[in-house]
Design goal:
Distance between the termini: 103 Å
Helix content: under 10%
Structural class: mainly beta
Strand content: 35-45%
Shape: elongated
Order of helices and strands: HEEEEEEEHHEEEEEEEEEEEHEEHH
Radius of gyration: 39 Å
Number of strands: 20
Amino acid sequence: MRLSLCAACVLFLLAPSAASSQWTLPQHNIGVRLTSAYSSATHEWHGQDGDPTGSSVRRFPLDGRYERFDATLDLRWGVTSRFELGARITTALASYRADPVQLLQEAGDDAAFDVSGQAAGLGDVYVGGTFNLVRSRFAAAARLNVKIPGGYEQPEGTFSTNVRSGEDLLAQAGSVIRPENTSGTVFLGLGQVDMIVSVPLGYASRTRTFFTLEPAYALRLGGAGDQVRGRLTVGQSIAGVLTLVASAYAEFTVQDGDVYGVSVAVEPPTTPASDVTLGLIADRRLPLREVRLQQDLVTVGGAAVLRFGKTDLAFRYERAVWGRNTARVQSFALSIGTSFDASNLFAPPEPPPEEEDEVYAEEEYVDGGYEEEGGYDDEGAYDDEGAYDDEGADGDQVPAEESADEVDVDAPASPEVEAEMPEAESDEADE
């Protein structure tokens, strides 16, 4: 029987996006990425009975199979040209399927023990920030991410009790090893907080080949063992449209984590379900494993990225090639990401335009009304060159007759006339 696959493979989702060529976005830019991923496993590594390194991969017992579907939203915000904040939210559906067994059939109890299980909901949430230290062909940054559990069930042993050792399980076998105590074998995470500090380093050549190395240290709270981590990436951009990437990732536990349950393993794992009974524990064919909050892992993978302006479409594949206390998972993912300038969201509102005070010309009151250049005369008519005379003041407003000598040469011409008139040359041009 398998204890838990809670740490089976969120490894793929934790990898930085191959499509992200900038460690920090420009100021007031926002980046959004949607990722859909599928992970599966039928084999595992764990150190047990003379195999402390866990280097021997073995099939899940009872014909077990692990699957997980993830939908992930990544958000980035360029606070300044060198500093950005980010968040990652994941929802997941994970399942483990295995053949049920009848452990107590020797005692005449035909009750089935079913270690299959399923979990769905919000996974781990990541929040953090990146500060760009150097930006040139050689680049460096400092990054801090915090992982927070998303409220899912905490991982447990095969039997959902407070058993923390094989001796405790055997001492309470009569009351603990019951079908109703069988816990699920899959969880959405380890249920503890991580603080991850990393220093991304990179180099880009004139041939559009780039290399990145990101060493990291994970301070893991809640009883989990701290880890050193690292990712190496090599990529080639082709015509600025297609980018091909190869990567390797590793994490190693540097201190023992707490025991969070006891697993009943099956040796050999190919033993059929009909042969698995409680009596096999005495024969060492059902060894008890104390499972800790720790694991080691090495993966390799690759990606192909198509870029269309500020939008990219990425396909990624990753596979675990070595580990300890984890599953040999392979993952496929398809993601689409984009970024845009959101400066208008952060700019202060423009003040309303100031109203200009009207400027009035000085006027002189005379008998019959106001009189000024072009003003009304004492007859009440508008009197000016080319204006209405006193005969049209109160009637049809007929314009006065104008002679050719009285035409105001400074008055603007009508559009029709202006179209036929050649452009006049100024005196300044003549000079």
